[in-house]
Amino acid sequence: MSSQDQDECDTSCGAGEESSVNEFVQAIEIEGSRYYLHTVAKPSAAEPLEYELLLGDGRQCFTGLVQIPDGSEENACAFHAALTAGAGGGREFVYRLRPIGEERARFSWLRRVSHEMLSRLNEVILRRDPDGGPRLLAAALRIVEQRDASLNNLREKLQRTQAEQARTLEALQRSLRFKEELETELYAKFSLVLNAKKRFIRERITNGQATAEEDQAPATSSSASSAASVPNQLDRLVSGE
């Protein structure tokens, strides 16, 4: 399987406790006994993806190499998940270990298709490793340390994000207070301008009415004078003056 296909498997099937070198440790059950499976995924451009396995229960350890077989992407993804605790790890898969003599054992893993049906994914012959116990423990401790470091990094990022959110909230509150103060100031200035405008309009109206009355008064007196002179003119015309 290509590196691109492997990336798709990692995305779709998930991963277990993983380090920067694609290292995984998971607890699995084999016929009622608890085992620990340490897997190191080794991608290579020249060869198919290879896994280095270290399996132990505290009393005995076995080690070996296995490659993803040719087949569908779904099976390759399940193969990867079974060895790396992806997609639920042991909850979805069944593991078996059969001794072959004193120094070897056949390790196989199967996927649960239904409650009573299993589908074999692959198997590999492992050899006994007398020094596997300390290496298995060291790998588990190393992955735990890396996980703790990752959690610390996430915690620091969260704290920085929370601090940034607090600063943003404070700036927003300052902006809201400034907006309210500006609105109050503008409203006060608008009230002054509006009142001045009203006074100006009232003065114009008052001055306009006074001017109209003054213009109307001479016209009225002139009309009255003209009306009074009409009889005199008639008298002069009748008398022949």
UniProtKB/TrEMBL annotation:
According to its UniProt entry, the protein's GO biological process terms are:
DNA recombination; double-strand break repair via nonhomologous end joining; response to X-ray
Using the record for this protein, list the coiled-coil segments as residue ranges, or answer none.
Answer: 144-175
Signal peptide from the UniProt entry: none
Instruction: Provide a GO CC annotation, any one.
Output: DNA ligase IV complex
Annotated XRCC4 coiled-coil domain ranges read: 136-203
Q: Which residues lie in Low complexity bias regions?
A: 217-229
Span list, region Disordered:
207-241
Keyword Coiled coil: yes or no?
yes
Keywords in alphabetical order, please.
Coiled coil
Molecular function via GO: DNA binding
- Segments crossing the lipid bilayer: none
What's the name of the protein?
X ray repair complementing defective repair in chinese hamster cells 4
